């Protein structure tokens, strides 16, 4: 069993090289607040490299009540533990939103949200039809160093007509003209999930050693209302270097005939999402060819696609699809890859996530950016490989910010919005130029310090 906190507070001390402080008031959007902030602690944190006492360490971070869940499943197809509980405890708790006095608003409101089982409350972000969005911030007048850390957040997208579809995290480093934006679409997920953030846009020349403000926006749109809940802003240490995972949905034959040979030239492995009931169709990759790809280092993973997204079906029907696909993978020699799932149509609800976490360790969904260490293992973000410009941009962000970009492909036949094999080759060339490591789902799983194999 891995330890409850894979990283000690002492390992994170340089995050608090200055006093952390927040202000409930506002002096203008993105402008530096010159007023005296309300400090979180009465004494400044130690300088980098200084020896800290436990008292000083608790000043830097919120007391963390995250606990590992050692749930055991009776089903022989199930994995040993729920990865959401294990990986969700990675890193340190930066803000639990129990002190909303640290947060101000530009648009909408922030209020006490739902109670947590372990005590305290989450925070509810609300936007009226006049607000367009909920937009909240927390200031650090002396600046904090986030250059060696990634951030993640627990989010409940809400329900009904007020459901939120996107969350944006912004780091002003040190101001709105020099900042990093991190967009995360959540329209494919219903219920609670954790979002691991990675840069999607840069403005100016941001210096993440001097972050003066953290912002969250939940975009709604003019004339609409939006309500969502956020909880547990966590920080995890950055990876040593960035990388990329190349995923392929639906086992289309062009993936074997066109993508596979190009990737072989570069020595790149991939991740293929298999639909068992299509594997014998003439335009799909059969078991023999999937085995060849696995022998070349690929993961062959679950992709239980039916005519509609999984949340369209009952819990029993969803579990049947998930189990049938995993059993097929095991029966055909793909047991290693069977630990991972690519969600069909990029859709999942709480039932889908609960069931998938019972049978799989990682789940790949939609998304927009890259990520570092995973705290939300069932909602690993992917960028659309058919969008060459966005994919190239996210690959560069992954390289610069030492994160893992997961790219999604379907067919390579061209036509419509799909890329051609020549365009696919350009992306492979770009990966080679950037010097990014090409990983599999198995590699990503092994990289998580909280994992106990």
Short structural summary:
By secondary structure, the protein is an alpha/beta fold. The protein is 21% helix and 28% strand.
Written account of the structure:
- The protein contains 9 helices and 22 strands.
- With 453 residues, it is an alpha/beta fold.
- The protein folds into 2 domains: 10-51 and 96-237, Jelly Rolls; 243-446, Glycoside hydrolase/deacetylase (TIM Barrel, Alpha-Beta Barrel).
- Mean pLDDT is 85; it is low at 1-59.
- Helix 7 packs parallel to helix 8 (421-434).
- The longest helix has 17 residues, at 315-331.
- One of its GO terms (molecular function) is hydrolase activity, acting on carbon-nitrogen (but not peptide) bonds.
- It holds the Pfam family Polysacc_deac_1.
Write the layout of secondary structure elements.
Elements: E1 21-22, E2 38-39, H1 54-60, H2 83-87, E3 92-95, E4 104-107, E5 109-115, E6 121-127, E7 133-144, E8 149-156, E9 166-175, E10 178-185, E11 192-196, E12 201-203, E13 211-219, E14 226-237, E15 243-249, H3 253-266, E16 271-274, H4 287-295, E17 299-302, H5 315-331, E18 340-342, H6 350-359, E19 362-364, E20 383-384, H7 388-401, E21 404-409, H8 421-434, E22 437-439, H9 441-446
Parallel strand pairs: 15-16, 15-21, 15-22, 16-17, 18-19, 20-21
Antiparallel strand pairs: 1-2, 3-14, 4-7, 5-6, 6-14, 7-13, 8-11, 8-14, 9-10, 9-13, 10-12
CATH class of the largest domain: Alpha Beta
The portion of residues assigned to helices is 10-25%
Number of helices: 9
Average pLDDT score: 85
Radius of gyration (CA) equals 22 Å
User: What is the β-strand count?
Assistant: 22
Strand content: 25-35%
Pfam family, one: Polysacc_deac_1
Region (Disordered): 27-52
Keywords: Signal
Domain NodB homology: 242-453
